């Protein structure tokens, strides 16, 4: 666990780690495969990466990305889609190749969704696996949209959102009834296969951070499975560290 005085300092630290990894990979002619998250938490991180692209010449030409999750069903162009979120906060402002961007497709026909999810997993494998996975955390301990009860063996799939998650996320929608009931999310096994994981949390997440870091490993707190990963760091601010 790394504790910073403010979210800005935490976000800058993580942006620097990402930039270092991208440059290391560039210098040996390799792609850098990033797993990315949405939600309010990584917004400052993406803003810092955009700044580094504009002011420090950080290039994303060798970067391949896989996003954790997407609402289902949802149109890409909906202002509520994670597709729109990622383009607004990062992809529209850097030199990443559009073909290197992978976000679960909320428009995919339901009949073919199983196969689609298998292909999403296969794409990650084909890219050589995720070098660095960025995570946020839900107040119920979810990572991606893996709600409590998700199996450690779970893979990318269509799943049902908990009502507490829909209520928390309704702040982005006109009202609760507009929040999709389903989502496509990488599974816990998909996330745990990443070579390195950084989970970010700021503000009023102290109780769930304490349970995830110091509590027993249980499917009732999906983020607690991260204790079993050999290279996972929680980058949090002082408020989120309050119960540790
Ligand atoms: C959302 C996302 C998660 C995110 C979490 C926390 O539902 N699916 O990937 O980490 O909830 O969101 P926030 O960062 O806004 O607190």
Automatic annotation (TrEMBL):
Protein name: Glucosamine-6-phosphate deaminase
Species this protein is from: Arachidicoccus soli
Ranges for domain Glucosamine/galactosamine-6-phosphate isomerase: 8-231
TM regions (residue ranges): none
Domain of life: Bacteria
Gene symbol of the encoding locus: nagB
């Amino acid at each position: 666990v790394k504790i910073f005085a403010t979210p800005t300092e935490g976000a800058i630290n993580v942006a620097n780690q990402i930039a270092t990894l991208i440059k290391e990979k560039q210098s040996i002619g390799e792609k850098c495969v990033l797993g990315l998250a949405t939600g309010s938490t990584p917004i400052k991180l993406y803003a810092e990466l955009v700044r580094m692209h504009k002011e420090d010449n950080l290039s994303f030409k060798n970067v391949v990305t896989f996003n954790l999750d997407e609402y289902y069903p949802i149109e890409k162009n909906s202002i509520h889609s994670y597709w729109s979120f990622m383009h607004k906060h990062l992809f529209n402002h850097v030199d990443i190749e559009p073909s290197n961007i992978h976000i679960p497709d909320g428009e995919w026909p339901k009949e073919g969704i199983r196969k689609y999810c298998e292909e999403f997993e296969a794409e990650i494998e084909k890219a050589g696996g995720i070098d660095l996975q960025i995570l946020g955390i839900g107040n119920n301990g979810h990572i991606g949209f893996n709600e409590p009860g998700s199996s450690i063996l779970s893979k990318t799939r269509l799943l049902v959102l908990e009502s507490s998650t829909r209520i928390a996320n309704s702040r982005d929608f006109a009202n609760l009834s507009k929040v999709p009931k389903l989502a496509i999310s990488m599974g816990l096994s998909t996330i745990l296969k990443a070579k390195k994981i950084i989970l970010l949390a700021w503000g009023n997440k102290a109780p769930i951070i304490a349970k995830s870091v110091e509590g027993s490993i249980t499917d009732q707190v999906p983020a607690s499975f991260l204790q079993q990963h050999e290279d996972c760091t929680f980058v949090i601010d002082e408020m989120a560290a309050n119960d540790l």
